[in-house]
Amino acid sequence: KSFLNHTAYLSCYFPNSAKTDIKDLRVFWQKGFVEVVHEVNYGQEKHDNLSPKYINRTKMDMDKWTLQLLNAGIVDEGQYTCIVQHRDKGSPKVIHTSACLLHIIANYSQPEIAWLHTGELKPNEYLNLSCSSSGGYPEPKQMIWLISYENVTNRLMRHMDVSQDAVTKLYNVTSKLNIRVPTNTLTNISCLLHLGEQLGSLVSVPLGI
């Protein structure tokens, strides 16, 4: 995983237990089956075969056998393969391959609740609210409304509208809530954006009514 516009670190997992000299090895990284991302040819970096979008965006740490991909973007997501060849009697022979999957993360803004009506709130009328969060990646799992009063919290699932920016590929999400105005008790309403098991959740500032 790498944050958007940060450096992604892709490991080749090559132990080099034989302590082979880099001048006897050819190392190259490719994305999918066609794009060459980085190439070190017997100790020298080679740029002839690189896919244009990776030129001047990669660095290889030969001590840690890790490729640094600078300014990682959403288009860089995918599977990368590291291939190590040894110069054996003139013809190169593959001695190691490994693959890793790159996922990009962009932080969503804190969810924010907005009123969708004007005027005074009256008992038994309906309350219309929306909750929005923007500029994140990947697509979130769900948005949940939390209605809390007198030590009780109800979780309400409502439809989540998701839109993706055509250029940046970042997501914006909105959910709407329509409930009766609470009477005679302080009620706190929050909304929770669930991003997935590993990324956790974001919660809005509660709205007190």
Structural summary, described in words:
By secondary structure, the chain is mainly β. A 5-stranded antiparallel β-sheet has the order 5-4-3-8-9, with no helix packed on it. Strands 13, 14, 17, 18 and 19 form a 5-stranded antiparallel β-sheet that branches. The protein has a 4-stranded antiparallel β-sheet with strand order 11-12-16-15, with no helix packed on it. The protein is elongated, with a radius of gyration of 26 Å.
Proper CATH architecture of the largest domain: Sandwich
CATH class of the largest domain: Mainly Beta
User: Topology as H/E string?
Assistant: EEEEEEEEEEEEEEEEEEE
Fraction of residues in β-strands: over 45%
Rg measurement, Å: 26 Å
Number of H- or I-type helical stretches: 0
Number of domains: 2
**Sequence of strands across the biggest β-sheet:** 5-4-3-8-9
3D shape: elongated
Structural class: mainly beta
Reported for the largest beta sheet, the result is: 5 strands, antiparallel
- Average residue pLDDT: 89
The total of beta strands comes to 19
Helix content: under 10%
* Named CATH topology of the largest domain: Immunoglobulin-like
**Uncertain residue ranges:** none
